[in-house]
Every structure is written in structure tokens, then in C-alpha cells.
Design brief:
- The chain contains 20 helices and 13 strands.
- The strands form two sheets. The chain has a seven-stranded parallel beta sheet, sandwiched between helices. A six-stranded parallel beta sheet has the order 10-9-8-11-12-13, sandwiched between helices.
- The structure holds uridine-5'-diphosphate.
- Uridine-5'-diphosphate binds next to α15 and α16.
């Protein structure tokens, strides 16, 4: 039958910022392999945001979104303020919801699936690929060190439970000697069965299930990993492809005209001095408590700094009374910023971040130093890498925002006289250069992307 030779099924994970980088990868692959058709399976809510919001357009014609059920019984509503509940309900509906949607796409296209690309969290997908007799290619979106943490969960839990030392290092895990027990994702730091969630149970099987994959794709550049970590991961998987940061296209294109940005962020930044602005964002899920939002507001007011704050609607209501009015000459608050562009604007001097991997990668790729307040998942491991491994930022004292703590961090990064700030500035610029080199057409990421395309194009299990 005529039509595309390859039908690649893509199973996205509709939480946090997992689905967008996977879709970016899919678009790259779909453009490079025109004889393919990609069916993208995701909840309709997440697909609507990815495919049909005004800020996205121009998807290759050979990429088609399909909805999978979110597991919420008809007529029920889950509180948007409780993402873990939605996550657990969704996971309970897997894998059947994905399998049903794949069957629909096969019927509709008349093409059997030739390859299964999935989010790395969706560990049941190996079985689906096995049943379809096609290669399985999981994409690991979070920080690579967190993959090791999940692979070595059993060992870590045994050691942790044996010595109960939260500050102990993870030197018994190859490549994680710089990390502490307390940096681990919550899904690893479980003390007993009663604390297990569907997600933690699923991720604790990483060491058993993920090595069945034909290739693992990393949202990362090999050059940034400790060599020991790369060596260990390479020994565990058939193929490990570090294809670069998936929310960015590097080398960066020139910024678009500022008046094309409907949020007004770029135009506002145009009016500020070079490296003078603090950009603040906590991504799509992290929710600082009211007292920490108040501490940030107080620190910003006391510093007199220009700031651009991406603050989701549900959080803006928690700001101290009168703060917005009092700071309107120096600050701009938006519900969503074109973050990758904002970080590429010369007026931004520091990024106050929750340490989501994509946010941190975007900051490094633009040479912007960071102030970190990690919350959950891989955030604490990333925060430690930012401050102690790469030296490209600082973490707030004791892991929470206080007025004096944030003021000190801002001073370290933004005041000219600060030696540590100068070091951080130098390190982040150097790391940016490493990334730009790795992202060149003959760089490691391009080579790994090519190897990935070979596996998808051949479409046979090995
Ligand atoms: N982001 C954005 N504008 C905002 C806030 C976030 O474009 O106002 C994007 C950001 O550029 C990044 C993603 O949302 O690509 C957040 O991903 P990350 O891994 O940092 O955090 P998560 O949302 O998964 O916690």
C-alpha cells in the first residue's frame, strides 16, 4: 500500500515538562525522515497545549496527535492544585489507554507500528514494543544523574536504610560521588511500602526494564556528564544517545523582533540595562509556599532590582498586598514568558529557578548564572550540579527562600565586586561554549541523533 514506509508510535508522559521536549525530538526526526509517519499519544489536555496553543504552529505534516484517556472517570474533576493526584490516576489507567490509542492509529493509518519511542518513565512500554515486535526507544528527559539514582534504587535504599545518613555522599554509585543522599528524587527516598506510589513503584523497576530498550535517548550533552557516569550508563544499555537539550535549537537563532512577542517580555527587556534583570520562574509544576513567595517579593522590593517574574495565576494571588502596584516601575509579572528567548536576551543577569532540568539547560546554553531553589524530582541533584559541579550558580541557604538569603544570592551574582560571582560568570560562559561546540553539525549530539535515526529507519528489534 502507498504512503509512509514507517509508522513510529510515540508515547508521551503528560506531566511537568516531559511531553514538549519529546515532541521537539519527534519533529526533528519527522523532518529528517520524510518517509515516516509519527503518531503522538498523549492526553488531550497536554496535546491541546502542545499542538493547538497560539505559541506553537508549523508541525511537520507527518506528525499527528492522538488522545489517550487521562483515567479520570467521566464527570469527575481533579483539583489542578494537586498534580500528584492526576498523575496517580493517569498511571492507574496505563498501559491499556495507550494500547487502545495505538490500535486506533494503526486502523486509521493502515500501517503497523515500526518503532516505539516513549518517555523514559513509561517503563511498561518495553512490553508493548515486545508484543508489537518493534524497537523500543525510551527518551530520558530528566537529569542523567537521576537515571542512575533510579537504576541503583535497591542499593541506595539498602545503604540509606542501613546508615540513615541523609548527608552521606553517593560515592557507591558510579558517577554520583558529588551527590548526597538528600539530593535524591523523592521516589528513591522511600522508607517503606506505605510510602510507595504508583510512580515510585514503576521507577524502582528501571534497572530491570530499561536495559531491554534498543536505545536510550538523553535530553543532554555527553560532555557535561562525569565520565564515570557515562561509562556506567553505557555499560548498562545497548545504545545511549545524548542528542542535546531538546527544548532548544542550537546554535541559537537571532531573537525574533520584540514586538512579535505577545507577552511583551522581550519589549520590556529591551528597555533595561545589560545583565541587570532578575528573571524568576518555577516552571509548570513547582509551587513555592506563600511565605517563600512573600520572601521573594520582599527581597526584590528591598533590592530595587529590575525583575521579570513568570508566575502562574494560582500563585500570583499569594503575593503580598500592594507588591505589584509598588514595583510596577521596575518589575513585570506575566503568567507565561517565552523563557528560552528571555534567557537569550542580554538584559537578563540572573535566573532564579526551581532547577527543572529544561530551565537549567536553557540558562546554561545562554550563559546566564542561576539562583536555585530545588523542589522535587531531579531538582536537588541539578541544584548540586549547578552550584558544586559546574559552579554556574548558587543555591538559596537551607533550600528555602528567605528575604536575607535571596538578597545575599542576588548580591553574589549581580554585584561587580563579588569574586564568587565573577567565577560563576566565567564558568557559565565556559560551559555555554562547551555546549555550543557539542551542538555543532559535526558535534557529538548530531552524531548520536544520526545513530538514532538509523535505528528508527531500520525498524527491527535487536
Ligand atoms: N517555560 C516557559 N515559560 C514560562 C515557564 C516555563 O517557556 O513562563 C518553559 C521553560 O522554558 C522550560 C519548561 O517550561 O522549557 C519548564 O521545564 P522544566 O524542566 O524547567 O520544569 P518543569 O515545568 O518540568 O518543572
Amino acid at each position: 500500500m502507498a504512503g509512509p514506509k514507517l509508522h513510529v508510535a510515540v508515547l508521551a508522559f503528560p506531566f511537568g515538562c516531559h511531553a514538549k521536549p519529546v515532541l521537539n525530538l519527534v519533529c526533528k526526526l519527522a523532518t529528517a525522515i520524510p518517509q515516516s509517519h509519527f503518531s503522538f499519544f498523549n492526553t488531550s489536555k497536554s496535546n491541546d497545549a502542545l499542538f493547538f496553543s497560539s505559541s506553537h504552529s508549523d508541525f511537520p505534516a507527518n506528525v499527528k496527535p492522538y488522545s489517550v484517556e487521562d483515567g479520570v472517570p467521566g464527570g469527575c474533576h481533579l483539583s489542578p492544585a494537586n498534580p500528584p493526584e492526576s498523575l496517580e490516576v493517569f498511571l492507574a489507567a496505563t498501559p491499556e489507554n495507550y494500547v487502545r490509542a495505538i490500535d486506533r492509529a494503526v486502523t486509521e493509518t493502515g500501517k503497523n507500528v515500526s518503532c516505539l519511542i516513549t518517555d523514559g518513565f513509561l517503563l511498561f512500554s518495553g512490553k508493548i514494543a515486545e508484543n508489537l515486535n518493534v524497537p523500543w526507544v525510551p527518551v530520558w528527559i530528566p537529569f542523567p544523574s537521576s537515571l542512575s539514582a533510579h537504576i541503583y534504587t535497591d542499593l541506595i535504599r539498602r545503604s540509606y536504610i542501613n546508615n540513615g545518613d541523609n548527608n552521606g555522599t553517593l560515592e557507591f554509585v558510579p558517577g554520583l560521588s558529588e551527590m548526597r543522599i538528600s539530593d535524591l528524587p523523592d521516589e528513591v527516598l522511600i522508607h517503606g511500602d506505605s510510602e510507595e506510589t504508583i510512580l515510585s513503584q514503576m521507577l524502582s523497576q528501571t534497572d530491570r526494564l530499561l536495559p531491554r530498550a534498543n536505545a536510550i535517548v538523553m535530553n543532554f550533552y555527553e560532555e557535561l556528564n562525569p565520565p564515570l557516569l557515562t561509562r556506567d550508563l553505557n555499560s548498562k544499555f545497548q545504545n545511549l544517545f545524548n542528542v542535546g537539550f531538546l527544548t532548544l535549537s542550537l546554535p541559537p537563532s537571532p531573537l525574533p523582533p520584540s514586538d512579535s512577542d505577545p507577552t511583551g517580555c522581550l519589549s520590556w527587556l529591551d528597555g533595561q540595562r545589560t545583565t541587570s534583570v532578575a528573571y524568576i520562574s518555577f516552571g509548570t509544576l513547582a509551587t513555592p509556599p506563600r511565605e517563600e513567595l512573600a520572601a521573594i517579593a520582599e527581597a526584590l522590593e528591598a533590592s530595587g532590582l529590575q525583575f521579570l517574574w513568570s508566575l502562574r495565576d494560582n500563585l500570583a494571588d499569594l503575593l503580598p498586598n500592594g507588591f505589584v502596584e509598588r514595583t510596577k516601575e521596575v518589575g513585570k509579572i506575566v503568567t507565561w514568558a517565552p523563557q528560552a528567548l528571555v534567557l537569550g536576551h542580554g538584559s537578563v543577569g540572573v535566573f532564579v529557578t526551581h532547577c527543572g532540568c529544561n530551565s537549567v539547560y536553557e540558562s546554561i546554553a545562554n550563559g546566564v548564572p542561576m539562583i536555585c531553589r530545588p523542589f522535587f524530582g531531579d531538582h536537588r541533584m541539578i541544584g548540586r550540579a549547578v552550584e558544586e559541579v559546574w559552579g554556574v550558580g548558587v543555591r538559596v541557604e537551607d533550600g528555602v527562600f528567605t528575604k536575607t538569603g535571596l538578597l545575599q544570592c542576588l548580591e553574589v551574582i549581580l554585584e561587580d565586586h563579588h569574586q564568587r560571582g565573577k567565577e560563576i560568570e566565567k564558568n557559565v560562559k565556559a560551559l555555554k561554549e562547551v555546549i555550543l561546540k557539542a551542538a555543532q553539525p559535526n558535534g557529538t549530539a548530531s552524531k548520536d541523533l544520526e545513530s538514532l535515526m538509523n535505528i528508527i529507519s531500520v525498524g527491527t528489534r535487536t
